């Protein structure tokens, strides 16, 4: 099986091609075509030698949106391994934990986010904590 670098070379792709792929995937997200966007971000996560944390975060969010909570948790935790302080990813992880029935872990996660400097994150965290408490 070819390594990731070899696949990019076989395809004749470079970083610009990856950015194009990311742009098209994001455009599908904006249109609400999450299943199609999932294919683009899945490819982005597999192709580069070092995937962008944004691509991994987006994959997790897409799986969450599509109701595939186990895969969502997998990719959100992978993204947090690359950027452990990203509050959007932490919030999506909390939502995923709630959806999987891990209420206590979800409450712990949103409890930390209720002190966020970001008003949107803080508001969503407060709403989740009130909903699941």
From TrEMBL:
InterPro entries: TPR-like_helical_dom_sf, TPR_rpt
Keyword Cell membrane: no
Provenance organism: Aerophobetes bacterium
The keyword Cell cycle is assigned to this record: no
Protein name, entry field: Type III secretion chaperone
TPR repeat extents: 53-86
Keywords: TPR repeat
Range of residues in the leader sequence: none
């Amino acid at each position: 099986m070819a390594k990731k670098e070899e696949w990019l070379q076989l395809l004749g792709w470079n970083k610009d091609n990856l950015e194009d792929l990311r742009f098209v995937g994001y455009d599908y997200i904006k249109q609400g075509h999450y299943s199609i966007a999932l294919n683009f971000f899945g490819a982005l996560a597999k192709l580069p030698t070092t995937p962008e944390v944004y691509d991994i975060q987006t994959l997790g969010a897409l799986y969450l949106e599509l109701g595939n909570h186990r895969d969502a948790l997998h990719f959100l935790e992978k993204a947090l391994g690359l950027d452990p302080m990203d509050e959007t990813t932490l919030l999506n992880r909390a939502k995923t934990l709630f959806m999987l029935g891990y209420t206590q872990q979800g409450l712990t996660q949103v409890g930390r986010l209720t002190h966020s400097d970001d008003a949107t994150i803080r508001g969503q965290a407060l709403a989740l904590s009130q909903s699941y408490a």
